[in-house]
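To: structure desk
From: M.T.
Subject: fold request, one chain
Message: Could you run this one when you get a chance? Sequence is below, nothing fancy, just the single chain.
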Amino acid sequence: MPLNIPPRYSAWGPRLYTFFMYLNDVDQGGETRFTKLNLSVTPTKGSAILWPSVHSHDPWETEDLTYHEAVTVNKGVKYSANFWIHMFEFQDALRHGCDNEDYFQDMLLTDTSKL
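Reply: Done. Structure tokens follow.
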């Protein structure tokens, strides 16, 4: 199973998007490199990038084009933050002791009119 796709019936579903923020300038290195797109983003204070983690036609299928890696910081330090946008809200599930296992979404994805 790809790393960014949780189990099909997990509490929060697949990661749909990643929002990545750069909190400082980096003297040398530290880019975010999208290897299959031949694209590198230089960390610049106050900038951010947003990318899809899955296909729009099938959110359970990983978008391989946005595979990325962090380039080593050669000089200075890199501060950043990311925000993952998932298919389902998960704070209530976590508060109730649920983790990312294949049980929570089963009942939400079931046709309750037949119950």
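Reply (cont.): The two ends are 32 Å apart (CA to CA). Let me know if you need anything else for the meeting.
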